[in-house]
Amino acid sequence: QVQLVESGGGLVQAGGSLRLSCAASGSIARINAMGWYRQAPGKQRELVATSTSGGSTNYADSVKGRFTISRDNAKNTVYLYLQMNSLKPDDTAVYYCNAEGDYVRDYRTNTFNSWGRGTQVTVSA
């Protein structure tokens, strides 16, 4: 299985910055795509940004020009980051990391689609 752990959330004033991190670990054979999603109280979970193995990125219109997604591959862990600048109160939400790809178990390759538990981001006016 593949585990995702987010960190870096917190309380920040409007106009400030935060950097979220997500560590993906386990018997990862390949990651096809990773992304950040968020869910505000009373709202559905929505896409924030995604990054594919081919290097392409995609952003929600509401964060374009303010957020930057990036990825770093270490030996046994894949890291996903979200640099968030010029934060607004509307960015307040729980931010979740998602990854999909293949993992190895009992010498067999299986697909996975995993979510982290989320990290709270609160932007005060």
Number of helices: 0
User: Tell me, what's the shape?
Assistant: elongated
Percent of residues in helices: under 10%
Q: Which range does the strand content fall in?
A: over 45%
Radius of gyration, taken over Cα atoms and rounded to an integer in Å: 15 Å
Number of strands: 11
Distance, first to last CA: 40 Å
**Ranges with pLDDT <50 over ≥5 residues?**
none
Class per helix and strand makeup: mainly beta
Sketch the topology as an H/E string, one letter per element.
EEEEEEEEEEE
How does the major sheet shape up?
Answer: 7 strands, mixed
The overall pLDDT average reads 96
Summarize the structure.
0% of the residues lie in helices and 66% in strands. It is mainly beta and 125 residues long.
